[in-house]
Amino acid sequence: MGCSSSTHLSPVIPANLMQPCPELQILGSGQGKTVLPWAVDTVAKYNKCSAQVDAWIEVGKAL
Asked: Is the pTM of this model over 0.85?
């Protein structure tokens, strides 16, 4: 009986998942003209980061 060898396959991680979450802007003032663009930017960054985290969770489940 011969020796058997096994190959450990590493998952391929998509490059877009290897990016850190973006930095959030500091809210400059409480004026509506400042708050609204800040809030839109913050929510967009949160959604992008949340999608990355969800994708990592799926990668982890597949292992």
From this structure: no
Report whether 59 contacts 17 (CB < 8 A): yes
∠ Cα 29 21 12 (to 5°): 170
Q: Tokens representing 4?
A: 């058997």
DSSP3 helix / strand / coil % (the chain, rounded to 5): 55, 0, 45
Q: What is the pLDDT of residues 20-32, one digit of tens each?
A: 999 999 998 999 8
What are the CB-based long-range contacts (under 8 Å, 24+) for 18-22? 19/52, 21/45, 21/48, 21/49, 21/52, 22/48, 22/49
